[in-house]
Amino acid sequence: MTCLHSPRWAHRVAAHRPYPDLPSLLAAADEATYDLSPEELAGALAEEPLPSLPAGTYAAASTALSAAYAAYEARFGHTFVICLDGTAPDESLDRVLPAIRSRLTNDPEDERAVAREELRRLANGRLRGLLGAAAQPSVHL
User: What SS3 string covers 33-99?
Assistant: First the structure.
């Protein structure tokens, strides 16, 4: 549940363990993410925290990002999610603000697909983090 807040997702991933290797675990996690119903996806999105701002972010940038978050939530009814794996902390604002502005132009159905993909990427990154990113002979998550 710390990787993706969905009881169904967690049960599906746990039900098939042990996994022979990390790619097998990640493939099962991907499939479980794609199989979430719209209600389950909404529940998982509701539990996601907003991306954090790097220390020392200017007040104007913080205000602009807060306004963009509010506009996104008003339009789509859930928190904006984006996977920032591999992004340096001082570059996250430069990635988040254009992404949220671009995604605000999506229709709700297209945005749900984008948000699902971002959740999938977040869950995979969290799984990798929990496992130390090292494939093991048998993953018992």
Answer: HHCCCHHHHHHHHHCCCCCCCCCCCCHHHHHHHHHHHHHHHHHHCCCCCCCCCCCCHHHHHHHHHHH
d(CA 62, CA 109): 28
Residues spanned by the domain of 52: 7-130
What confidence tens digit (pLDDT) does each residue in 102-136 have? 999 999 999 999 999 999 999 999 999 998 854 44
Tokens for 121, please give them.
């990427």
Q: Is the pLDDT of residue 47 over 50?
A: yes
CATH number at residue 49: 1.10.3330.10
The domain total for the chain is: 1
Q: Can you tell me whether residue 19 is helix, strand or coil?
A: strand
In a domain, 75, yes or no: yes
